[in-house]
Amino acid sequence: SMDFEKKLTRLEEIVQKMEKGEMGLEDSLKLFEEGVKLSRDCQSQLSDAEVKVKKLMGFDAQGKPETTDFKVEE
Predict the structure, then answer these.
(1) Integer angstrom CA distances of residue 4 from 1, 21, 70
(2) Sign of the dihedral defined by the CA atoms of residues 74, 33, 35, 44, in that order
(3) Angle of helix 4-20 versus helix 25-45 axis, rounded to 10
């Protein structure tokens, strides 16, 4: 299984690809699903260190992904 750093890097790649908005719906959904899973994996791996993670929220009216930065609080 990928380590935390690799998961975060992959998550960034996914967000960047989706933000370009060049993919079809099916590919976007596949990436979105992978992103959500990675996001959950990363959250579960977080320790006491405060780490900023991009969270995929869904899509806006134009079909662009919406993301938010959030911090995990103790």
Answers:
(1) 9, 26, 17
(2) positive
(3) 150
- Residues in CB range of 40: below 8 A, 6 or more apart: none
DSSP 8-44: HHHHHHHHHHHHHT-S-HHHHHHHHHHHHHHHHHHHH
The structure's pTM equals 0.62
Q: Hey, what are 58's tokens? A: 């869904």
Looking at residue 59, its pLDDT comes to 85
Rounded to 5°, the CA angle 5-63-44 comes to 25
